[in-house]
Amino acid sequence: MRAYLYDNLDTDCREPHEQNPSVPVSVEELEASGVLYWRLKDENFEDQIDKICADRNYKNRDQITVSKQGLGELFDAKIKTFFAEHLHEDEEIRAILEGTGYFDIRDKQDRWVRIKVEAGDLIVLPAGIYHRFTLDSNNYLKAMRLFKEDPVWTPLNRPCDEYPYRKAYLNVIEAN
Ligand SMILES: CSCCC(=O)/C(O)=C/O
Ligand SMILES: [Fe+2]
């Protein structure tokens, strides 16, 4: 995982969009926005996932393959939905199994921070954070999705500042 400020250029979102010079964003800075990160080791990948699930009460899991083959005729529509700035009522928890991609999150100053993920990364985006997702130029990512009960990942596109989970998110972040 590597995180940095987005350059805000209006070119293909699958490009890195790293500023020049780059402005790195640390794991601690991500945490200040409520984003959690773990690096999972190959040797005991499943054990580490199981421990995080037990600690954080994630009871269920499934897998998604974000690629033309994996999503079939839904691919173009899904990719568009993922990259529209949105939030969810629930956490978005993804353990990357194969491939690469970018999660962009809005930090406390409402700047886009780009998080490059690869196999072995586990990321938790808190409920209520504005974010988006895109593949990179490899056009392939397979992820495990973790969730507590039935997940509520309906994307609510910005602006939705009046939703209770957005307000709850801002309250937690401001107290940090
Ligand atoms: C890497 S999983 C696909 C992206 C997704 O599920 C989502 O909600 C993006 O915001
Ligand atoms: Fe999302």
Characterization of the model:
It is a single chain. This protein is an alpha+beta fold. The protein has one domain: Sandwich (Jelly Rolls), CATH 2.60.120. 24% of the residues lie in helices and 33% in strands. The chain is built from five helices and ten strands. Strands 1, 2, 3, 5, 6, 7, 8 and 9 form an eight-stranded antiparallel β-sheet that branches. A two-stranded antiparallel ribbon has the order 4-10. The two termini are 23 Å apart. The relative contact order is 0.24. The site of fe (ii) ion has 5 residues, from loops.
Structural class, by secondary structure, is alpha+beta
* CATH class type: Mainly Beta
Characterize the main sheet.
8 strands, antiparallel
How many individual domains?
1
Superfamily (CATH H level) name:
Jelly Rolls
Q: Nearest-angstrom radius of gyration?
A: 16 Å
- Uncertain regions spanning at least 5 consecutive residues: none
Counted by DSSP, the helix tally is 5
CATH architectural category = Sandwich
Helix content: 10-25%
Tell me the distance between the termini: 23 Å
Bound molecules: the ligand CSCCC(=O)/C(O)=C/O, fe (ii) ion
Mean pLDDT: 96
Subunit arrangement of the protein? single chain
Which structural traits does this protein have?
binds fe (ii) ion, Jelly Rolls, globular, 8-stranded antiparallel β-sheet, iron, binds the ligand CSCCC(=O)/C(O)=C/O, 176 residues, single chain, oxidoreductase, alpha+beta
Summarize the structure.
The protein has helices at residues 27-32, 45-56, 68-71, 75-83, 164-175, and strands spanning 2-5, 36-39, 60-66, 86-87, 92-106, 112-118, 121-125, 131-135, 141-147, 156-157. The chain has 176 residues and is an alpha+beta fold.
